[in-house]
User: Fold this.
Amino acid sequence: MNKSYEFLLQDISKLKKIGKKTALILKKKNINNIFDILWRLPRSFTDRSNISKIKDLHIGKISTVEIIPLKYNFPRIRNLPNKVICEDDTGKLDCIFFNSYEGYIRKILPLNEKITISGKINYYKKKYQITNPTYLSKDKSVIKKIHNKYNLTEGITEKKYNFIINQIIEKLPDLKEWLSPRIANLFNNIRWKESIVKLHDYNNIGKHNTKFFKRLVFDEILSSFIVFSEIRKSIKKIKKNKKIFLNKYSNETINNFGFNLTKDQINTLKEINVDLSSKSKMFRILQGDVGSGKTIVALLSSLNVIESGYQVAFMSPTEILANQHYNLAKKIFPNEINIDLLTGKTESVSKKIIISNLKNSSTKMVFGTHSLFQKKTLFKKLGYIIIDEQHKFGVKQRKSLSDKGGSNCDILLMSATPIPRTLTMTIYGDMDLSVINEKPKNRKEIITYSKREDNIKDILTFVKKEIDKGNQIFWVCPLIDDSKKIDHQSAIKKFNSLNKLFHSRVAIIHSKIDNDKKNIILKGFLNKKFDILVSTTIIEVGIDFPNANVIIIENSNKFGLSQLHQLRGRVGRGVNQGKCILMFKNNLSENAKKRIKILKNTNNGFVISNEDMKLRGFGDVLGFKQSGDKKFNLADPIIHEDLFKIAEKEIRRIEIEETNLSKYKTLIKLYDKADIIYDLV
Assistant:
């Protein structure tokens, strides 16, 4: 019995009929080894099992026919096809060949011998034709089968792909079972090999609720969870000096707030403080909806780290966001704590002073962008790294960050993309998790309206009233320039029209504007130099404009729910009621109507994210391409929520009971996760 997994990890070029050209086509689709091919599932099948008579053929249908070649017609004029006139006892049929040599045709279609062919039926000059038959053989048993149809890569025929798949299945090793008896029993003890065979059986196409399919889904989930578990354990093994503090600075700061922390903020702060004061390195994700108060928690925990004698680095994705966090810290931190802002815009003289202060530890906390991690930026005693809006980091980047921070440096990552627990486990399973669900009691829920674009006059009247009250408005457009292909109002066109109406109190920002100018515009809007900021979706992330209480989103039906929620979260951060207007065209699809209704009915980001993923899929919502994390082949955190929960319990059992992971070696190697943590087992 072949139990080796190594066959499956061989390069695809090891298979028959895969030359350099085919291998290149497959590798462009991230199909690198034999195992990768197995996850390109059949979408339908072609039934070639029944032999038809020529008189019964139907135009456009794929059919199998037994014919006898009677005559060759090889024209001497270039570019004309070769033809073989054939017949059965009911009529005649022509086999047409393009780009085939005479010798080859004579060999495959010898005259007066019975040949079985299969292909698509055409009709020309009152005669049936098959052009370049897909299958052709003297042995009809080779053809009289049901053949799977795959979402083929251009350049690879159905025939070739079936041949490749079939040879893999014939050589499939019967791998030693890695599932525990209890888990295997949940799937009727069906083995991995049998599950793969069934996956490619035409009888099972689309049957995703079967035991064999769920078993393969579970394998994917479990492999990911094991790797995450090992990364967590490897980080926990990193011993550090305890951070000793009495919450002196943080308690003083809380007392001066004038408002109470939410229960979630209090609990989350406790979780972080426990990690900070432990002997094991902290590697935690702080997740919360827009406006839930994550930054406050991060800053309070920073005060405890500073009290313990360490320095803190707070990194943000943009300069304006770094500026915002810095100004908040200046406002709430005790005066004796020296903090600095270090970005690409910091003047060289100031930069030298800040870097010097970090080296001698007179600066206790620094805010900035990626410049904080440049080689020349050195710390005397860095003990805490906080990274805001970290959802674009992948697993490998997070691991390298942990390594970069040093053994005594704890790490907190923050994400404002609220997602269900199953998905959080999928993406951030290597980290401990803290979640803030509550929003501060003084934060009013944003009122969301929907308006057709032909009501633009009413919207403009509303905008004028808001401006007269001293409020500011975001106006979001999907495109920068006009597009002939997509009927979107461009940001530039909208800026020009609004600028005429509101007498130059309008600014515009989009991705084609350089960063320097972008920051000037955003600072200007923050300081109320403009009433309206026309923008593309680049305002989605993190920036806090307390005086902006209205956001208008054009072509809102073209956005995903999560993105609309993030955009909506840019307003209502001050004392005034936040309002969001979703503009749309007539004749909305049912899906679009559903999305708009969800937005109007709830401000809960976790509920919205869940609904968004049901509608669009989790990959589209989170943008895995940006993070470098791969999607699962079969598993879906929403559809297979029950299996994720079972896998979570199973990984906890494995962590407690199984110190030797050698039985999972095959599982981990096959599912291409081992490279993250090198030789795991």
